[in-house]
Amino acid sequence: MQVWLLLLLPVVASFYLPGVAPHEYEKGDPVAVKVNSIKSTETAIPYDMYSLMVCYPEKSADGKLLYTTTKSGKVKVRGEAENLGEILWGDAIKPSRYNLRMQVDVPCQKVCTTKPKPTNVEKKTGISIPLKRLKKRIDEGYRGHLILDNLPVSEVYIWESGVRGLFYRRGYPLGVPGNRTSPSIVYNHLAFTVKYHKPEDLPGWRIVGFEVVPYSINSAIIDSTCKTGEDFEVGQQAPQLLTITPPSEAPKALSWSYSVKWEEDPEVAWSSRWDHYLRSSDASAANIHWFAIVNSLMIVLCLSGMVAMIMLRALHKDFNRYNNPDNEDEAQEETGWKLVHGQVFRKPVASRMLAVFVGSGAQLFGMSGVTMIIAMLGFLSPARRGSLMTAMLVLYALMGSLGGFVTAMLANMFDERSWRTIFTMGFWVPGKAFGVFFVVNLMLWTQGAATAIPFGWLAGLVALWFFVSLPLVVFGGASGYRLAALQHPIATAAIPRGIPAQRLTMHPLLLVLCAGAVPFGAVFIELYFILSSLWLNKFYYVFGFLGIVFVILAVTCAEISIVLVYFQLCYEDYRWWWRSFWYAGSSGLYLFLYSIYYFATNLNMHSLASIILYFGYMGLLAYVMFLVTGTVGFVSSLVFVRYIYGRLRVD
User: Fold this and answer.
1) In this model, does residue 109 exceed pLDDT 60?
2) CA-based angle 302:625:10, to the nearest 5?
């Protein structure tokens, strides 16, 4: 077993491509610093950095303003979003006021002083709304995020647990939260450390690290002593306090500054500059992933043993007994699954919806599989912001032909051939997803969140659905309808047969609940890292491990459905069509229950908007898992039932 795991190590470790071409800088060249959204794990709602009382960027190189002012006085800085995935993920990348030049140290540089004009309401109450908003974001644990040469800024800590090393945490806190006895503190000075590397046989230098240490310095000290070219001890200054009440103690203005220190790092090459970020993620612990895989393999081996026992012993014995003409007495006394051979292929209730469910699951399964392959090849690394989400959306639209084809084939088999079935499938998952997304997006828009997708991007998302996904669904359906319907190996009896009373242990609800726990148990450890990536703003890049877990999940779903369908038929209950889907699909229910447990033990969300956001998206994710795993269980059970009854000799 150890040798086998070592052979798989290069595959599951995967690799990543940096996502951009390297850029060489000469000494003194300007290096652009961009700002991203501010994010907090306590709310999961990102906001635009420029929604706070900070310094706005100056004019661009061609002299154009980088921001506009609305009639209400609100300033909007132009963004630089590259793809739809960045928008959906809440990345609002915009230019900043920080001016960095290659290998030019800056002891202290004042950026600006922000002093918002009070509105009529603020004049009456005496409370500044921008100051109140800034204090609220600090108390909610928001962190600022900057980008330099496609590298995110990070705080660096010494990691003492286990092997000593550096721990990188993305972003920096906006300040220190206050309480009833002490005021909040604003981090208004950022001490940057930029690391660079000299490539061999190439002119210039490449940036390989971007670190920050935030400080709080009284604005009066910044105004008087923070000057370019003069030494400035940032760690020995009085902090900038932030109070709202009483209004007389609230700061009238805030000054912002930064310092820059350049360090050469000959040990880190440009191609490996992301390694520090990725190793600092919880998902980088390979031993945990191996434990999860071994745990999953044990479940698969147990199920495989049961399937092998059914196929090699029970079925082989049944075939010999039923198909051997010398055993006429036993053949005439039909028992078990052979007794329902005339009923097993009877059309199920709501057969059209079953075709829709399986077709939707096939589309999602195809999207997941292709996305996994592309990610394992390294094209969806964290360096490519928004690429994973964009790839999933595009691949889902392209897989519409697969979903339409599978739906049409099943509709033909159930004699439910109609374009209504195909269009229902084309609207089923996207309609529900768009409904959840629209409600959440409306709520985020009222909150002013960065993840509130603009109307133009929303129109593009709808266009992707109606003009790419839906036509491909229709094309796949038309292709499936052109083919002949699948013929069952045994004819269906004209009169339905009664189903004998079943044991309590064969109750459908009990079997469904027990069956779903098996696939979920094979993947729940990996789910922890995935949820941490989604809700705790951590990197997830071990797509090789995820690919193995995905295969194990599919095998587990197939085997548990086959085993339970066989036992069900042995007890002369031929209503297996929908149950084969529910047996494996119920793992989606366990995912949603696990999301409740994860919310209670790992998250600290209190606002209603954050709770709606979390459970809205987790409910949608659980429904997607229900469709994918249910489709795998149904298709494998269909193949199994057709196989065993195709080999049965019936007079």
Assistant:
1) yes
2) 60
